[in-house]
Design goal:
By secondary structure, this protein is mainly α. It has one domain.
């Protein structure tokens, strides 16, 4: 459970920094509405990527723990 909190904090901080990075790159070059839409798209894409990585970790741990319970050391 501790890991879930840590992963959540890291994901939130990463998404915040990513949004700020997009703002720094395109802020002032395009309209505020366009900047918001681009930032939203980038953050949503990154959030989906982070979610897929978290899902992979959970699936690997379930597989690993079930192998350990069945006596398979690999």
């Amino acid at each position: 459970m501790k890991e879930a909190v840590i992963y959540s904090l890291v994901a939130l901080s990463s998404l915040t920094m990513l949004a700020y990075t997009v703002h720094m790159f395109i802020g002032g070059l395009v309209s505020e509405e366009t900047e918001f839409l681009i930032t939203l798209g980038v953050v949503i894409t990154a959030a989906v990527g982070i979610a897929l990585l978290a899902r992979d970790v959970v699936m690997r741990r379930k597989t690993h723990s079930s192998r350990l319970r069945s006596g398979d050391p690999s």
